[in-house]
Amino acid sequence: MGKTILGIETSCDETAVAIIEVSGNIITVRANLVYSQIKEHRPFGGVVPEVAARKHLEILPEMLLKARSIWKKDLKTLDGIAVTLGPGLVTSLMVGFDSAKTVAWLYKKKLISVNHLEGHIHSGTLPDVEKGDIKKIRFPALALVVSGGHTELIMMKNLTSYTKVGETVDDAAGEAFDKVAKLLGLGYPGGPAVEKAARGIKNSSYKFPRPMSKDTKTLNFSFAGLKTAVRILLEKEKNWKSKKKEISRAFEEAVVDSIIIKTNLAIERYKPKTLLAGGGVINNELLRARLKELAIKKNISLLISPKRYTMDNAVMVAYVGYLNRTRGVTLKRFGELSAKPNLEYGEI
Ligand code: KG4
Ligand code: ZN
């Protein structure tokens, strides 16, 4: 018998609802709705927490109703309700978490909390079709999460053991893309804008540093200096507006190189059998290509998130909810928990 899980995700600026069915090794996505609040945040050039929370509050109820009507079944038949507990923006998380609590209470369903980052990690195992095989992780595995809020390397001994072995000491890679896009006047969100601007440029005449890459003792990353390097260049270079494409390419290469250098180091150090990769920046074509090359060179299997699940979505939340449910992680007393903006691995 398969299990049907409703997933709710509101950790940042995407409001997302999904219904999945998992039977053995097969996942079927019954509904997958994402409302990206780009329009609401564009005037500010970044996510404004209060604006995000208000929009989640306004739109989540109708998205839940829409998911139900797409699925065409009664929520009474669900096997559980999965929701992002953290990490993320506290006011955004609260909207999703408290709504999930209410729905679970109303329908007398199990409430399953999910770590958003586990969602990004496991999105690498999901098929690039509505119905298909869930890919097997061979342990030990190394996971790379690169998003707007996080850039980290995690070692996994099994499905429940996550050890962070490297992380950014300042900005996340996605945040650096967003900030540099703003400096270059390329718009918001920055990652896709910089990628588009850099398209077609093979050899940029600019070169930015690869921060912390020579320090092989640590698997940590740093991206704030890279953003400063771009700012300094723009201050010096009078005609930078005509060089946006070359600057974008050089910046993209510096970020991707920095990520690949530390991922390579982590593979040499921990000898994983699988490399998982997820998060919004994994959408980047150059990064995807370089990760594929690295996996071939190191002879490990790469489970990279299909593009449809790189950005925040509720399918990944529902799927980790399913994993958590099968390992008995459900909340019995609804009153005992609320959103955790700084949730760590292993806290659920
Ligand atoms: O995973 P995500 O949707 O949200 C967080 O959990 O943070 O990631 C959003 C981030 C943004 O910073 C966005 O600029 C970046 O992912 N991003 C990209 C690309 N597409 C999205 N960065 C580089 N290249 C892309 N193609
Ligand atoms: Zn995310």
Structure description:
It is a single chain. Helix 2 runs parallel beside helix 3. The chain is an alpha/beta fold. It has helices at residues 38-41, 49-71, 90-107, 116-122, 173-183, 190-198, 224-236, 244-270, 285-298, 315-326; strands at 3-9, 14-23, 26-36, 80-86, 111-115, 131-133, 141-146, 151-158, 161-167, 274-278, 301-304. The chain is built from ten helices and eleven strands. It has a six-stranded mixed sheet, with helices on both faces. The protein has a five-stranded mixed sheet with strand order 9-8-7-10-11, with helices on both faces. Strand 8 (151-158) and strand 9 (161-167) form a beta hairpin. Helix content is 40%, strand content 21%. The chain is globular. It has two domains: 3-128 and 309-336, Nucleotidyltransferase, domain 5 (2-Layer Sandwich); 141-305, Nucleotidyltransferase, domain 5. Residues 12, 147-149, 174-175, 177-178, 189-192, 195, 279-281, 283-284, 311-312 line the site of 5'-O-[(R)-(carboxyoxy)(hydroxy)phosphoryl]adenosine (KG4).
